[in-house]
Amino acid sequence: KQEVTQIPAALSVPEGENLVLNCSFTDSAIYNLQWFRQDPGKGLTSLLLIQSSQREQTSGRLNASLDKSSGRSTLYIAASQPGDSATYLCAVPGSGNTGKLIFGQGTTLQVKP
Amino acid sequence: DAGVIQSPRHEVTEMGQEVTLRCKPISGHDYLFWYRQTMMRGLELLIYFNNNVPIDDSGMPEDRFSAKMPNASFSTLKIQPSEPRDSAVYFCASSLGRTNTEAFFGQGTRLTVV
Question: Looking at the complex, does the CB of residue A34 fall below 8 Å from at least one CB of chain B?
Answer without folding.
Answer: yes
